[in-house]
Write a structure and sequence with these properties.
By secondary structure, the protein is an alpha/beta fold. It is 22% helix and 28% strand.
Length: 655
């Protein structure tokens, strides 16, 4: 810009030589928020205020001036070029001059060379670059002012773009109602007293110690922060390696679900920018979990994750829990780091070592007690490494992050895309499994005798028979309330095809759900229909005393030639069922307690989907046994008309 005379005239000049280690000069009565980033040769006069999230960076060799009583509000950015300056009211050269009682509002950008006169108002998200704004001007929202000189006392409407001097000279004069509106806006910008800092470095906001760090990435400028030395050092290391630093936060519920939300950290190589933004993120989410992330911009992959704040921690003083994800080797020699299992037990470390040696991938999942009962697990951070030390480190991080939850270890066959191992390794009471309780496909092929654990010999024999027929075996569980509603939940995702796998899976399910009903389910692979359902565990009953409640007959007996066994079903009802089936009707069953019986609110038993009388009667017998104190009725359904053709109460309480 050309020279325009005195009183704030923009002039051309060479870059000023300056010492970038010069600290800001802040008047004792000025108020600078702890989360403001003020760097370099900045003068803040008496009574001026600099809000949270602002960035005032005089790091290009020229000075800034913020006048007495001026206000720089939240998120505003003030920066300047080194090769252009304005003449301030004191006759000195400045990259940016902000006059007395001026207001630079939220998210505004003042980029020098720029002069803002006294009593000016710069609206939200407005930009002033290489320009002069005269005294008493009102610049509204989303305005761009560049390469012009705005006469004093003018009004710039919202959304205006002022790029020529003709446009600037044609602006209207500000009215009194406009000034009243500005005064109301400026009056709303007040901070709590505890959030205001004086320039001596005493930050009373949270009582944390404030430290000065000399930033190597911003020309040696001094950054004042409440972050711990450990966290600052970690950020510095990541930036020095060329990684981008970001942050995420989550409340307690989303933390358990591993559902994090990104903080708005700048993609900057300046340490001061990153530390200021990170400190703001910690302040904004003081009651939540916050973690720092290192990202390799070349491969667009996370190389570092660390939980740096937990609910209850003081801002910036939380313990850094590191979980390095796929940390690249800097020496390239391929040497392994020493194995350290930390808090991971020896048996667990051995199991991890065995799974890795067999080429399986390791995974972890966690669930709170409610989701554990519903078998709704959430994956922890994926473990892509094949290094035992890295796997154990990430596993230890998962255990620490979910100390009050259930955590289970998973072995995955990547080729078959199938789980071969599941083991609960942590429970909310602090206990974990020392031995393997899951189903290991690799161990199933050694031909050793099958251990039945808490499974009765009758159930083991039934499993052997079902596996011999080619059925896939799985297990389901239900608490007392869901058992009455016949709402079962599958135990894991392992579908065993061998006797050893089936018994191991069933034993693990019974151990994990000791206070629930557990049943064995056999599925025919061809028809994908259930061939058998066997209740193997009931609450309060020892495993040895658990009896089989229902076992559907083999598919080979569905031709109707076998004699019909009515069990506890009345003979007349058994004959009626056989008659309905011969007519092509479907059979169902419902139950209700005394209160729901009076309200005619019945619940389906389910499982009566057989095409033969033997299957239907066996399922009905199981329904009667599972609901001994309820009313039970049999239903005949016409599948074509989708209407009931038969209803008969076959059981009443006390009879």
């Amino acid at each position: 810009m050309g020279s325009r005379g005195a009183n704030g005239t923009v002039i051309d000049r060479k870059s000023l030589a300056s010492d970038q280690s010069v600290r800001p000069a802040i008047h004792p009565t000025a108020q600078v928020h702890p989360f403001a980033n003020v760097v370099g040769q900045v003068t803040i006069a008496a009574g001026a205020r600099v809000g949270p999230g602002t960035s005032v960076r005089a790091d290009r060799g020229a000075a800034f001036h913020i006048g007495a009583g001026a206000s720089v509000e939240d998120g505003a950015l003030i920066h300047g070029l080194a090769d252009g300056c304005v003449l301030g009211d004191d006759g000195q050269d400045y990259a940016v001059w902000i006059g007395e009682s001026a207001t630079v509002s939220h998210l505004a950008l003042i980029h020098g060379p720029a002069y803002i006169g006294s009593d000016c108002f710069i609206g939200f998200r407005s930009t002033v670059f290489n320009a002069r704004v005269g005294d008493g001007c009102i610049v509204m929202m989303h305005v761009l002012i560049q390469d012009v000189e705005i006469p004093s006392g003018r009004y710039v409407p919202s959304g205006s773009t002022i790029l020529t001097q003709e446009q600037a000279d044609a602006l209207p004069v500000a009215r009194e109602r406009d000034r009243e509106f500005v005064r109301q806006l400026a009056g709303l910008d007040h901070w709590p007293e505890g959030a205001i800092a004086n320039p001596t470095g005493n930050w009373p906001a949270n009582g944390s110690a404030v430290q000065d760090y000399r930033s190597e990435g911003s020309g040696g400028s001094v950054v004042t922060t409440t972050l711990s030395a450990e966290l600052v050092q970690q950020v510095r290391q990541l930036l020095a390696q060329g990684y981008q630093v970001s942050a995420e936060y989550a409340d307690a519920r989303r933390f358990r679900a591993n559902a994090w939300t990104s903080c708005a950290l700048p993609r900057s190589a300046y340490e001061s920018d990153v530390l200021t933004a990170l400190e703001g993120c910690l302040r904004d989410h003081a009651g939540e979990y916050v973690r720092v992330i290192g990202i390799d911009p070349a491969v667009k992959k996370r190389v570092y994750e660390s939980v740096v704040h937990r609910p209850g921690d003081k801002v910036g003083q939380g313990t850094v829990t590191s979980a390095k994800a796929s940390q690249p080797s800097s020496n390239g020699n391929g040497s392994k780091a020493p194995t350290s299992n930390g808090a991971v037990g020896g048996d667990l470390a051995t199991q991890v070592r065995q799974l890795l040696a067999q080429g399986y991938q390791i995974g972890t999942e966690h669930a709170d007690p409610r989701r554990f009962r519903a078998n709704a697990w959430t994956s922890c951070k994926p473990i892509d490494s094949t290094s035992e030390s890295q796997v154990l480190s990430l596993l230890q991080g998962c255990l620490a992050d979910h100390a009050g939850d259930y955590v289970r270890l998973i072995g995955i066959d990547k080729r078959a895309k199938k789980r071969v191992f599941e083991s609960v390794i942590q429970r909310p009471d602090g206990s974990g499994t020392k031995a393997v309780t899951g189903a290991s496909a690799a161990a199933a092929s050694n031909g050793a005798a099958v251990a039945t654990g808490g499974i009765s010999a009758e159930v083991a024999a039934q499993i052997r028979q079902l596996v011999g027929r080619g059925c896939k075996i799985t297990a389901e569980f239900a608490d007392v309330r869901r058992f009455r509603a016949n709402a079962w939940t599958t135990c894991g995702s392992v579908q065993a095809t061998s006797e050893r796998e089936a018994i191991a899976s069933l034993s693990a399910c019974m151990a994990d759900h000791a206070t629930a009903y557990v049943r064995l389910v056999a599925v025919e692979p061809g028809s994908k229909r259930r061939a058998a359902e066997i209740i193997v565990q009931r609450p309060g009953v020892q495993a040895a005393n658990n009896a089989v409640s229902f076992s559907a007959p083999a598919a080979a007996s569905t031709n109707g030639s076998a004699p019909v066994s009515a069990g506890n079903v009345p003979a007349a009802v058994a004959q009626q069922i056989q008659k309905l089936l011969s007519q092509g009707y479907r059979i169902g069953a419902e139950y209700a307690d005394a209160r729901r019986f009076r309200a005619n609110a019945w619940t389906s038993c389910g499982g009566l989907e057989g095409s033969s009388a033997n299957q239907v009667l066996a399922a009905l017998t199981a329904c009667l046994a599972n609901n001994p104190t309820s009313y039970v009725r049999v239903i005949g359904i016409d599948p074509t008309a989708k209407k009931r053709v038969y209803e008969e109460v076959v059981q009443r309480p006390g009879r």
